[in-house]
Amino acid sequence: MRLPLQLLFISLFMLALPWAGCQYVKELESALRKGQENTLLASVQVLAQSLDDVEQFYPTTAFVNQPPQADRQLYAYQLARPMIVDGYADDWVTEQQQVKWWPVRAGSEHTQLAVSIGIYQQQQFSSGSLYLYLNIKDGQLHYRPYREKRAIASDAVLIELQHPWGTRSAYLLDTSAPGLLRAAEITHQFGQLERIERDDISGYWQESAQGVAIELQMPLSIVGQRIAVSYLDYQPATDQVVMYKTGYPPQLLTMPELHQHLQLLPPPEGYLIRSKPRLAEQIEPYANNVDELLVVDKQGWLLARTYRHQDTDSDDFEESYSYGFWRWLYRLLLGDKRQLATFSEVESRLYNEQVQAVLQGKANAQWYRSSSDQTKVAVAYPVKNELGVIGAIVLINSSDEILSLTNSAWRELLQITLLVVTICVFALFGYASWLSFRIKRLSQLAERVLTKEGQLIHYFPVSHAQDEVGDLNRSFAVLHSRLMDYTHYLQGLSSKLAHELRTPLAVIKSSLDNMALEPLSDTVKVYQSRAREGVNRLRYLIEAMSEANRVEQSIASAEPELFSLKSVVEGMGLAYQSVYPNKKIKLDITENSCQLSGEPELISQMLDKLVSNAADFTPNDKQITIELAVLENDYLLTVSNEGPLLPETMRHQLFDSLVSVRKESSDKQHLGFGLYIVKLIVDFYEGEVSASNLDDLSGVIFTIILPKKHL
Amino acid sequence: MKRRIAVVEDEAAIRENYRAVLTRYGYDVSLYSNRPTAMKAFREQLPELAIIDVGLEDEVEGGFELCRELRSMAPQLPIIFLTARDSEFDAISGLRLGADDYLTKDISLEHMVARIVALFRRVDSLKQSQEESQQVVEGPLILDLDRMTAVWKDAPVPLTLTEFWLVHALAKHPGHVKNRQQLMDAANVVLDDSTITSHIKRIRKKFLKLDPAFTAIETIYGFGYRWQPH
Fold this sequence. Notes:
The structure holds two protein chains of two kinds.
Chain A (H helix, E strand, L loop, with lengths): L2 H9 L4 H35 L10 H5 L8 E5 L11 H7 L7 E4 L4 E10 L6 E10 L18 E7 L5 E6 L5 E11 L2 E16 L3 E9 L7 E9 L4 E6 L5 E4 H10 L7 E3 L2 H7 L8 E6 L4 E6 L6 H21 L6 E2 L10 H7 L4 E6 L5 E11 L2 E11 L1 H49 L19 H49 L5 H35 L4 E4 H15 L4 E6 L5 E4 L1 H18 L5 E8 L3 E9 L31 H11 L3 E6 L5 E9 L4
Parallel strand pairs in A: 1-3, 1-13, 16-17, 21-23
Antiparallel strand pairs in A: 2-3, 3-4, 4-9, 5-6, 5-10, 6-7, 7-8, 8-9, 10-11, 11-12, 14-15, 14-19, 17-18, 18-19, 20-22, 23-24, 24-26, 25-26
Helix pairs in contact in A: 1-9, 2-9, 7-9, 9-10, 10-11, 11-14, 12-13, 13-14
Chain B lengths: L3 E5 L3 H13 L3 E5 L2 H10 L4 E4 L9 H12 L5 E5 L4 H9 L4 E4 L4 H19 L7 E4 L2 E4 L4 E4 L2 E3 L3 H12 L4 E3 H8 L5 H18 L6 E4 L3 E4 L3
Parallel strand pairs in B: 1-2, 1-3, 3-4, 4-5
Antiparallel strand pairs in B: 6-7, 7-8, 8-9, 10-12, 11-12
Helix pairs in contact in B: 2-3, 6-7, 6-8
């Protein structure tokens, strides 16, 4: 992986920064929540202690100790306006937009009864009405036959209630035909049931698709604390009645049994539960600080309820709306996986786990998610008196404040850290790119230290950077200069050696010369001539060793002149024919005079070396070709010969000094300076030299390109 | 009277060998191994010819220094540099200091003696300049074989012995191409090709200095050189 990518990858760890911030915000939020819970608990506690009057909760003290089954209670809603008694539920539905109806149900599979009860009362102590809406599902309706003498001979609704003054009454509502109906109070005289028509209780019988809907109205003044509603499904075949009473299982009664029940008329078990205006008044002052304040009794029935006065600020709304995205991101990133219970807005009875727990006497707080996806906290506190827990206060507040607080913190945090991370990532990436650029440049430099021909470059740029890359560069530079020195030493070694050898050679030579002047025996003369031969060979060797050095010197002191490359090559080529009579020398030279600026002697010296090299490898009677051509910007000079091919391994070192690919069988001395001298001269002309095998592998070709630019 | 030759050379074996050969040829030879002793002796009595090595014991260029001092003492004294150094630069430095010839140590003793003889002859003929001498005349070039001097268009050309013999070999047969081996033989030296080339170059320069239009020495690439017949 490339360096910038590596650093980019590493910089991804900086994303831990916003994550940590998120954790902090999360902590903050939970602390704020805790704080809110505590505050709410404290205020609800004060409220709870002020509400210890059992009278305000329950009709009797007995209720507190032994309340009847909850589903036998009937809850009366507070209606905003009087209902029109017509058997249609339209006006109830209108009310329904404000409250969620929770009808009491009873029945079997075939026949069902649903009862909704509402109270309309203009002022607290004024007279009001109790409205009942009964929705009955009954496949077979039985109407009261005309002129029927018996008290009960049809499907009917039976309402048992206890009056405020203590006595009990049973009202029967039946009819011969759909329409307006009147209630009959059932009394018993002399063992017989009597029907007394009542004017104050009116109703309407409206047939529906499933059965019948009955709506009825009665004055509140006759309604006491206890009430029971049942539907009597008359069975004409057997003259029996199935009684569907709210809170009870269906009961099959014979007429005598029903009569007996109506005669005895035990007080209804269930209470009529209605909201308590006085309680509402009491909690009203506290409602300003919270969204919703509820008082429930021991069974969770709603006794009082107040709302905060809605002063919805449109700005707040917009803000919370725009927070939606951040909120969503927050949940996404932090995994706010809390599965909050959905808060069901029950209007009549609140009996969820939290309320059940608080009715056990344990104050608690619980978080909910409302249907509009708002988080809400509900704090419940038990109301106690000497009897024990008599009810509970539930305080519901939305966590909007906390939300907006944490949201803004979260949003700012996220924005800042994102900005910082982005800047850091870019900075790191840029830095890494720069670093990698420097290293790349250094590595390119290091690659360039040796040219294609295996020569060291002359200058290695030194970095002034004070860091490790700079150090590396300097180390390379030092390495390069040492290598340079060593190469120079090696290059100069032969000439130095030649110089050092010259003196002892002179000693031997002068001694031999002196010896020649002495009278010598014939045997000694033989040895002397052998010694002379040896000395001469040694001298040639030394000459060869210092030749390269001399070429360098003559290059250094060269005074360029304009000359014709063609005439030099042509003249040399013709001369070689006599020098190498055993080889065929072929010249292929352009007509152009090939003007070149430089030292013609160097060209001839170079040709000497190339041709002598070629001649050494060319078998007798084979051909050596010297070619001169003009290219666009250069002159092309090639010397090719038929013969053995170049060994692949030596190709690049061919032009170095002291490198020779010759076999030792050659009669002349070769130290591998020839091609090195060629290279020196070509360098002087700023040209290029290369050696390769001929395409048809018949021999070797040396190619020299000399730029014309000296003109 | 024997001619006195001073050999300043730090290598004892060579020194002694030179003494042996020069004594055999009838010269009086005095040997010095370094510059101070040589100078001390020269101040007392000048030799008639000095053969000086460039590197003298711990003085790398002591020979050059000695040459300069000696030349200031005796402007006419023939001086030959004999050295293991064969670089172009050293040769030029030596000749600039007024040496009459510059030889490498691998020259054979016979050749060296021939040089010495030739130098003495030049000195002698300069002293008796009025005498008729053997001359080669080729156009504006006059070579005096006794004095070993060259004149181009009436101006003397300051050639060293080696150079003189090279010019002589070329000018004796104008129009003939002389290859390097022939030139070497003529100059009584064993030189490699590039040294011949640099000698020719130096000769050309000396002529060009006197006559910028000088083109008499022609290079025949691959063969050698030719004196353009006038």
